[in-house]
Amino acid sequence: MKSKSSNVNDTNHLNKEENKNQPKREISSPSTLDSRFNQTLRNVQGLLKGRSIPGKVLLTRRADPIDDLSTPERSPTFGRSFSESDTGTSDHVQNPMEVEDPSTGKSNNGNVNKLKSSTSNIENTSKEAHKSPIGTRATDSARLITFNIIPFFTRSCREITRVSLEWCTTVHAPYCMEASFDRREGVLRRKRLEYFDCVAQFYDIPDTERSDDEINMLRQIAVDCPRTVPDVTFFQQVQVQKSLERILYTWAIRHPASGYVQGINDLVTPFLVVFLSEYLEGSVDDWSIANITPEKISDIEADCYWCLSKLLDGMQDHYTFAQPGIQRLVFKLKELVRRIDEPVSKHIEEQGLEFLQFAFRWFNCLLIREIPFHLVTRLWDTYLAEGDALPDFLVYIFASFLLTWSDKLQKLDFQEMVMFLQHLPTNAWTHQELEMVLSRAYMWHSMFNNCPSHLAS
Asked: What angle in degrees, to the nearest 10, is found between the helix axes of 390-402 and 324-340?
């Protein structure tokens, strides 16, 4: 009897152990699951209601970012702001494709189709950017998205140039890129005040408080300012030259490793023209700086200073002692021309012409003196879009520029080549010729940049 009872107890004990090891199964009806899901969804919606992700990416799909860019609200202190503050809720949006007129408070359906097209355009661009193949440049996707942020119906050469300058240089070094939109005005105001303090500290002082080197540098800047873009009468105005002088001297004092180098004066002019175009209409030759208030001139001057600083931060060794950065790029240019067009390279070498004799000025002034000034802003769109990769891409642009006259160069001797390259026939150039130069440069960059031995003998 004991053995039987013990066997039964052992069996019951084993069954209990197996039941303990098995996971418990919760039997829930479909209605219970639906109610829990709906409750969770309501909780999340209540938590996130009216909130937006920083950077103008809203939780609900709406066209407000496009509206902000296409019809920016002008700030009383800064006329180049792009959008309003990010703060606020999105509860007032009933129809995401309706544009509200801030002056009347009424919705305006006239731009609905345009906004739809622009929104789909940006979404498609973003998808294409994410699908870009391995090996493309890091800046390609960013440039494509940045360009498509501008609605197609507002794209003009000046608008694209202005947005390119302000997005790529962020108007004042990398500060505003890090700052969100709601802090941009504060950062902008702070950087302008910083520039004004530097001018008061370094420029607006008597010569008795300057060293001999600083006096000589200021005199050299004063000599070079009237020589800046001599073909454009606007830059011959005294007030414009004074602004250039303050920008260049302040930059040189704050960058003692290089100081002022002839040619830097040309690099300020594209920024100055683009920022002034907000207030002056028509051709640059017809502009008068007297039509702008001193306060606006000071703000534009500060913006140009920070843009110049950002541009030169990536090519500081171009202007230090002996300018090693330029010499290195000239050597790369010579090697690239040999790989692309060996007959031209061999002819230049046989005639005894060194690339440094004509290409040094190209790298020093970034081609500003080689092409008509009305094409400079288009060229600088490409410069600024390249970002930190600009110095390497300059080699391809200048190779394309030189080989525009490949056939003619092979027929010239040394003296004729020197004269020809110093006075290139670009006076009649239009955007079409410049676009061809940039297109070839981009194509060659794709072919040769990551293949140093390609076509090399």
From this structure: 50
